[in-house]
């Protein structure tokens, strides 16, 4: 059995350092309730107790936020008149404030999402701050080009391009990395000079609302950043709103398709960072101790609630049993418990719905002929805890192999040679990430080249950086997050031509 923290406190008592007061939304620089006064509970997934209440935004609230963002984007607004250097300083200040309040944000993130507070504090929050720091430098480096005419005599025309902010942006983020996903959206949109309406996931709105307070404190003018809380109804209204110029969504491929349909009304620009079913390939010549430990982390980190989870494990047949047993031993050592408890390595899944979904996939795997090699069950009867799980004897057509589960469930299969594994790795509608473990440099890069995925790790996993573009092939999305490339999501290119003679 996986190690479980039996000391978890399940009483519905207040958590020190957390304010249970009802929250409000940020619209036009003011903290407001929903227009109709409706609200919903946000729940601690470790105890199933209510943390606080949050406004349930609907179409009227989205419209109010879009109008505020449009006003803040007016040519004579403080935001549009601000110099790029000043804008960059404000964005950098947001990063500083995140680091100053990292302990508080990590507590909120752990309570609302369930993830271990240690990982939120030492992974999510530093990466969140770094993204704002990195993007702050781009505010002064958004440039066009002077382009000589190809069909006219020199000196007849002067032609150049400029880069301009796309306008009002709608952004929708998921619940697995709430504050970090908010930074992936907000930092580049601010660097580009746009204004934004952001909707956090209904399961995890609290850290984003606290981030919005820090954004205000940093000096972002009223109406530039607006946060509307709510469920899918608010997200649909934002995606379809006729005065939104661009929509950016991170979430499931299924919902991504709905976003595209909703955005078609006014042909708004769309970028999507969607699901994955990432192959993790271990060759017999790999450093097996490292491959085992890293492969376990690739699937069980963040409870497996990650679009880049290494959820499909392919191991060369001669070492398959050794690697599989090693990962099972790693899984047994994982300490499962409340995210706020010291020593917790894996928290609960985010909601009862998600726990039911993941357990349902395990049941489907059994019905289709897979073997539960390790785990496979819920832990306890309070909180949404699940054992780290490994399935073997799987076939490509099985749902557990073909579909994104988004939980701590690994499907493992042996392979024989490079040709076999390249075909198996690419036999998926997704193409977000992949990994290769081998000591052979040529084999590593040959395999990486053969895999159709936006990120390929070699002898590592889960390594990201603000400077590196992130996104997927195929049904894993459109466009890229982070790096220089993300700015193109939020910029228009204007060509100017002047006749000189």
TrEMBL record:
Pfam families: Aldedh. The active site is at 273. Residues 31-496 form the Aldehyde dehydrogenase domain. PROSITE patterns: ALDEHYDE_DEHYDR_CYS, ALDEHYDE_DEHYDR_GLU. The keyword Oxidoreductase applies. One of its GO terms (molecular function) is oxidoreductase activity, acting on the aldehyde or oxo group of donors, NAD or NADP as acceptor. Residues 1-21 are annotated as: Disordered. Keywords: Oxidoreductase. Gene3D superfamilies: Aldehyde Dehydrogenase, Chain A, domain 1 (3.40.605.10), Aldehyde Dehydrogenase, Chain A, domain 2 (3.40.309.10). Belongs to the aldehyde dehydrogenase family. PANTHER family: ALDEHYDE DEHYDROGENASE-RELATED. This is Aldehyde dehydrogenase family protein. It comes from Solihabitans fulvus.
């Amino acid at each position: 059995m996986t190690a479980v923290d039996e000391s978890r406190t399940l009483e519905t008592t207040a958590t020190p350092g957390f304010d249970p007061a009802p929250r409000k939304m940020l619209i036009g620089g003011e903290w407001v309730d929903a227009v109709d006064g409706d609200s919903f509970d946000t729940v601690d997934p470790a105890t199933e107790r209510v943390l606080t209440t949050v406004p349930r935004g609907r179409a009227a609230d989205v419209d109010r936020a879009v109008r505020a963002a449009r006003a803040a984007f007016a040519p004579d607004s403080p935001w549009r008149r601000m110099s790029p250097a000043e804008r960059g300083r404000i964005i950098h200040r947001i990063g500083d404030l995140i680091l100053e309040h990292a302990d508080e944000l990590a507590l909120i993130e752990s309570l609302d999402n369930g993830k271990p507070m240690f990982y939120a504090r030492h992974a999510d929050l530093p990466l969140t701050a770094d993204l704002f720091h990195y993007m702050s430098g781009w505010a002064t480096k958004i440039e066009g080009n002077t382009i000589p005419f190809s069909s006219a005599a020199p000196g007849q025309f002067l032609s150049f391009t400029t880069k301009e902010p796309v306008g009002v942006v709608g952004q929708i983020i998921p619940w697995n990395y709430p504050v970090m996903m908010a930074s992936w959206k907000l930092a580049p949109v601010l660097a580009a000079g746009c204004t934004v309406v952001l909707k956090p996931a209904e399961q995890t709105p609290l850290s984003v609302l606290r981030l919005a307070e820090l954004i205000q404190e940093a000096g972002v003018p009223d109406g530039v950043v607006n946060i509307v809380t709510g469920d899918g109804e608010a997200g649909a209204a934002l995606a379809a709103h006729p005065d939104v110029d661009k929509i950016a969504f991170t979430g499931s491929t299924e919902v991504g398709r709905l976003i595209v349909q909703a955005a078609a009304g006014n042909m708004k620009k769309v970028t999507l960072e969607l699901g994955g079913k990432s192959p993790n390939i271990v060759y017999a010549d790999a450093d097996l101790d490292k491959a085992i430990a890293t492969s376990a982390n690739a699937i069980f980190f963040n409870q497996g609630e990650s679009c880049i989870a290494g959820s499909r494990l392919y191991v060369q047949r001669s070492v398959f049993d050794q690697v599989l047993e090693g990962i099972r031993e790693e899984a047994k050592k994982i300490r499962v418990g409340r995210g706020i408890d010291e020593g917790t390595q894996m928290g609960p899944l985010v909601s009862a719905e998600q726990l039911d979904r993941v357990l349902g996939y395990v049941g489907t795997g059994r019905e289709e002929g897979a073997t539960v090699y390790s785990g496979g069950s819920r832990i306890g009867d309070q909180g949404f805890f699940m054992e780290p799980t490994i399935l073997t004897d799987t076939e490509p057509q099985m749902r557990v192999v073909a579909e994104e589960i988004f939980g701590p469930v690994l499907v493992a299969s042996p392979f024989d040679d490079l040709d076999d594994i390249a075909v198996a790795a690419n036999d998926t509608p997704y193409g977000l990430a992949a990994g290769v473990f081998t000591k052979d440099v040529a084999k590593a890069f040959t395999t990486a080249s053969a895999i159709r995925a936006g990120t390929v790790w070699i002898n590592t996993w889960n390594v990201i950086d603000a400077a590196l573009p992130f996104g997927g092939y195929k049904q894993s999305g459109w466009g890229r997050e982070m790096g220089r490339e993300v700015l193109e999501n939020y910029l228009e290119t204007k060509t100017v031509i002047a006749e000189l003679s």
